[in-house]
Design brief:
This protein is α/β, with parallel strands linked by helices and about 220 residues long. The chain is built from 11 helices and 5 strands, in the order E-H-E-H-H-H-E-H-E-H-H-H-H-E-H-H. The chain has a 5-stranded parallel sheet, with helices on both faces. Helix 3 (about 40-55) crosses helix 8 and helix 6 crosses helix 9 (about 150-165). The longest helix has 18 residues, at about 150-165. The radius of gyration is 17 Å and the shape is globular. The two termini are about 25 Å apart. The model has no long low-confidence stretch (mean pLDDT about 90).
Length: about 220
């Protein structure tokens, strides 16, 4: 049964979205959608690929997110407006990070993503995933540029648009250093008696993560 999306994450990837995912799952008692779902689940993989290539003209957000209570990270964050319409009771969390710190982390992820590109020849699913990501994120959001100036401009433009678009009573601007309190107050929930999760910390191996993702896509076609 679909309990409905209660929180829409509008922040770009590499702004603490893995930590936010874990926190929201704990608070809301359900699953939070993340890029990893596209890697893990064949139906999601095809839904995004068909959407990116125009085979499916519109995403069925209700069907895609039927088993989830929240959603964060790329590519879902790009469609926060559509998600607000699809789930009118949902609140929006804009996760932020200092722009140059975000870009360094994003650049590291893009470099690690070359592991996937290099393995595309052995897996049609990896090739489809790369095409989806390039179409929606790299070409769509960042207009094909990997420069600091262009990427930070896209990051700041998106954040400004979210803050200008989402009604103030429906929006929380948040960063991982804020921890539980503002998140719980925003959602009218008690603060858990546990440390706030801090996942994907600096120093974690992005190359290892990409190899793990590649293996999952190769063996889960």
């Amino acid at each position: 049964m679909n309990r409905g999306i209660r929180v829409i994450g509008a922040g770009f990837g590499r702004t603490g979205t893995s930590s936010l995912k874990d926190a929201l799952e704990w608070l809301l008692g359900g699953r939070c959608y993340h890029m990893e779902e596209i890697i893990l689940h064949k139906a999601d993989h095809w839904a995004w690929y068909n959407f990116a290539t125009g085979t499916t003209p519109a995403m069925d957000w209700q069907a895609l997110l039927n088993d989830y209570v929240a959603c964060v990270d790329f590519p879902i964050c790009i469609y926060y407006r559509e998600l607000m319409d699809a789930f009118p009771e949902a609140k929006v969390v804009l996760s932020l990070r200092e722009p140059e710190s975000w870009w360094r982390s994003w650049r590291g992820l893009m470099r690690a993503a070359r592991v996937l590109r290099g393995l595309g020849f052995i897996s049609p699913r990896i090739r489809r995933h790369i095409r989806m990501a390039e179409t929606i994120i790299f070409d769509g959001v960042f207009e094909g540029s990997e420069t600091l100036a262009d990427n930070i401009a896209a990051y700041e433009r998106h954040n400004a648009e979210v803050m200008a678009t989402v009604p103030p009573e429906r929006l929380l601007v948040w960063q991982t250093s804020d921890g539980w309190q503002p998140l719980c107050e925003f959602l009218d929930l008690p603060i858990p008696d546990r440390p706030f999760p801090h996942l994907n910390a600096a120093g974690s191996s992005l190359n290892a993560k990409m190899r793990e993702y590649a293996a999952r896509m190769v063996f889960n076609r």
